[in-house]
Amino acid sequence: MKNTVFWVTLISVLVLILALGCPDGKENGDNEDGFSISIDSLEHGSITPNVTIADAGELINLTINPDPGYSLTPSTLKYNGIAINEETRRFIMPAENVIITAAFSIQPYTITVLHPYGGGTFTVSVAGGAAIQSNTSALFGQVITLTANPAENFFFDSFTVTRQDDSTEELEGTGFTRTFSMPSSRITVTASFRDFPKTGDLIPGKGSLIFHDEFDGTELDTTKWDLAPEWDRQDRSSWRDEMVSVGGGNLIIRMRRDSALGDQRLPANAENRQQRVDNWLRSGGIRSRKKSGEIIFENSYGYYEARILFPSPYRGTWGAFWLMTRTGSGGMGNGTEIDIVESINNETGRFNSAIHWDGYGSNHKMLSSGNSPRQPLDVYDGEYHIYALRWSPESYIFYVDGIEYWRLTAGQQVTYGGNAGSGTTTVAINQNPNYIKLSMEGANWAGQLPVGWDGTAEMLVDYVRVYKLEGDN
């Protein structure tokens, strides 16, 4: 009996020991619900495991997500202090809970500078640093400044940024400088330069080049232009030499409100004097005729074009690309002012072309595209546009960005306006040479300046080109 009790007791104790050491019959070290995977507190990035609970021996995959501008710091990716392969980002789950640790550090990205063959070079400046002409690096979000340096007889066209994913962006801007924020990838920057057109070059549809200025210097080329005389214009503005300059690949004609100048120029009894004083403008212009009256360049017929960025949206400003006879304005067929483009009514998106003849007094007459509904596009969108005139013995044809929008043909019956009142006439094409003018001014018919505007508006001209029409002698 005693032996039976002993053996029963012994068996019970062994069962109890086994039960306590291996719950539910599992081997020591197993966990019915698996082991947990947690991520330590991280800055500038995150880590995501493919599972958060795993059994011992299971393969764990990690996804590393650095914030823009940061990367995983080498030798910092670990589980429970044990290094994880940073290329595969995998590990075998141990028979214990796991904590993933890592660090992220700020990541400079390479800027590769590609200089084109010939045409010029450019420099790169990172966040105010010194300009360089070779590869460099920058941090995400840093401001990068690119400055083009065209070679002689070349002009700067554009900068293009290519990202690591091969996406590209042509940087917007004017002049030789562009800025952008560094993306979170390495980039390649290229510049595009083009040859100057050369006198005598034959351009299909336009003819041979006989005059041009690309405005790629730092001063006005006095072999082609002179500053316009310092005249008062339209009883609303004054041309002044200091308002014209050349730089950044452009002719720059500036305009600003100058009520003090208006107060000096207008007589005390002028009509609507105070309103005109309040809206008086100081501006300027150039022409291919010297102030002395000597002609630098003039021509009869041809294809005339200029690439211009008009200021916007400044009601009351009036920029123009136009042709004038040396006698001012004569008859319709022997002395016509030809306005290739005028930037008026710019808050409504409209612009104007016109011809004027029979002087500017009581006999003045004019025809204008302003009444034509055909305005092919918005020219006040902050972009350059190309304005052109094809002037032949048979017609005037006006274009914007290659789109014809107004035509006058010899013999055409038209209704004119002007100081002489309205009437009808037959179109005659001017046979005499005209010289070129580019200018800004103010006029009542262009509207009043915006209330409170005291800034500076700029008309930028990228180039002017004149072609002799094919077949002309």
Structure class = mainly beta
**Percent of residues in beta strands?**
35-45%
Overall number of domains: 3
Q: What is the CATH topology assignment of the largest domain?
A: Jelly Rolls
CATH class identity of the largest domain: Mainly Beta
- Counting H and I runs of at least 4 residues, what is the number of helices? 3
Span of the ends, CA to CA: 141 Å
Helix content: under 10%
* Rg over alpha carbons: 38 Å
| Sheet with most strands | 12 strands, mixed
Mean pLDDT, as a whole number?
A: 84
Low-confidence stretches: 15-29
CATH architecture of the largest domain: Sandwich
| Number of extended strands | 39
Shape summary: elongated
Secondary-structure blueprint:
Blueprint: H1 2-21, E1 35-39, E2 45-49, E3 53-54, E4 59-66, E5 70-72, E6 78-79, E7 82-83, E8 90-92, E9 98-101, E10 104-106, E11 108-114, E12 120-126, E13 136-139, E14 143-150, E15 154-163, E16 168-170, E17 177-181, E18 187-195, E19 202-203, E20 207-213, E21 226-227, E22 232-233, E23 237-239, E24 244-247, E25 250-257, H2 259-265, H3 273-278, E26 281-283, E27 285-287, E28 302-309, E29 317-324, E30 337-343, E31 352-357, E32 365-368, E33 385-391, E34 395-400, E35 403-409, E36 413-416, E37 423-426, E38 435-442, E39 456-468
Parallel strand pairs: 1-9, 11-18, 23-26
Antiparallel strand pairs: 1-3, 2-4, 4-8, 5-10, 6-7, 6-9, 11-13, 12-14, 14-17, 15-16, 15-18, 19-20, 20-39, 21-27, 22-23, 24-25, 25-26, 25-39, 27-38, 28-33, 28-39, 29-30, 29-38, 30-31, 31-32, 33-34, 34-35, 36-37
